Amino acid sequence: MNKPRPRIDQLLAGIADGDATSHAAFAIRDALRELGYDSELYALPEHMDPATREHCQDIRTYKGTGDDVAIHHYGMYTYATDVFRSCAARKILLYHNITPADYFRGYSDTIQQALEKSRALLPELAQASAAVWTVSAFNAEELKAASVPQTRLFPLPFVASALDRPPDPEVQARLSAPLTTILCVGRIAPNKCVEELIEAFAIYRACYNPFSRLLIVGSPRSAPKYFTYLRLLAHDLRVPNVCFEGFASPSGLATYYANAQLFVNVSRHEGYCLPLLEAMHKGVPVISRRTGGTPEAMGNAGIAYADLTAERLAGLMHLTLTDADLRKEVLTSQQRRIEQEQRRNLAAELSELLP
Fold first, then answer.
1. Which of 124, 157, 190 is the last residue of a domain?
2. What is the mean pLDDT of residues 220-224?
């Protein structure tokens, strides 16, 4: 009699519909099921949004055996990490990236200490794992520096269907004014350097286009002091139409992309950055700082810069918005990048990676 295939489950800090990592985890689960494995997602119920609860399991009930496999999405030490460390299942550490703790110095001692602990645990977690996967070559170099040399590359899946939703009527109504819309998406945290985008937008609006707005979409919960600083900065610069939209539902996020003429990412530390692909999929030209794992997410698409003053970034934003030939070239490159992503066969990739 053939031995049954092991279960392969994923352990996460939380699940949210609208979160790119959560959508990727569901895509991995579906690919594992396609390969014939029983597979579920596990997280704490209080960290599941209502739309996902019926599709996830309470991580406190996880009982992985020595015949099973547990994949842990790791970017910060959480309760899920403790479950991963103590379970009997064969372990796969899927490393997303740990934000350098110094970014949170002065903003949150709690987060700073949690990030320091998370990074200190990396060698132990890797040593206890049968395999270590990482979402970018940049992350692989970080792991190598942390004495984790043996890693496998598994770029985080981009799920296009997650953004193919009908518009959110409430969001659409708020965006009804005919303004040029510049969009930034991602959790509001100090490494994202959103202040640089606000400063560039202030110059763009004053020098190029007063009929414009900046939409900043993302949760401020991880760094409330930083969020307050950004709001005060916009006030001090006397720049209107800087709109902090908070965390967006899938329909809301699709609506923001549908109304945007430009997407700008100024973050100084990213493990990969899926919102770049989201913007490309929705046909929005992308400008991104070339840092961390962002070049791997971008491929040869969009516009990447190493460093620019606020004045030069404002000028680049204006050029991308007004030069028809440049815009066409950018959008063509982005369409090629999305087509490349859509050709991925997750089931085949996972089959080759599984220990």
1. 157
2. 91
- Clarify whether residues 322 and 240 are in a common domain: yes
Residues facing 305 on adjacent strands:
289
- pLDDT category, 141, cuts 50, 70, 90? very high
267, amino acid identity: S
CA-nearest of 26, 37, 286, 304 to 182 is: 286
| Torsion angle of the four alpha carbons 263, 269, 272, 275, in this order, in degrees rounded to the nearest 10 | -20
Is residue 346 a part of any domain in this protein? no
Report helix, strand or coil for 9. Answer: strand
Interval 39-56: pLDDT, tens: 999 999 999 988 888 899
Q: How far is 68 from 325, CA to CA, in rounded Å? A: 54
Overall size of the chain counted in residues: 355
pTM: 0.93
Q: Which residues contact 51 (CB under 8 A, 6 or more apart)?
A: 17
Asked whether 331 and 283 are in contact (CB, 8 A), the reply is yes
Q: Which residue reads 């066969």 in tokens?
A: 345
* Beta pairing, strands 8-11 & 69-74: parallel
pLDDT tens per residue, range 102-140: 999 999 999 999 999 999 999 999 999 999 999 999 999
**Residue 249: other Cβ atoms inside 10 A:** 17
Secondary structure (3-state) at 198: helix
Residues 151 and 169 in one domain: no
236 and 283 housed in the same domain: yes
Are 222 and 288 in the same domain? yes
Q: How confident is the model at residue 188 (pLDDT cuts 50, 70, 90)?
A: very high
Query: d(Cα 231, Cα 60) in Å, to the nearest integer?
Result: 39
**1 pLDDT tier (thresholds 50, 70, 90):** very low
Residues 222 and 273 grouped into a single domain: yes
* Token digits of residue 310: 């606020």
Confidence of residue 95 (pLDDT cuts 50, 70, 90): very high
Q: Work out how many domains the chain is built from and give that number.
A: 2
The secondary structure of residue 38, as a DSSP letter, is -
3-state percent helix, strand, coil for the chain, nearest multiple of 5: 45, 15, 35
Q: Is the dihedral of CA 19, 21, 22, 24 positive or negative?
A: positive
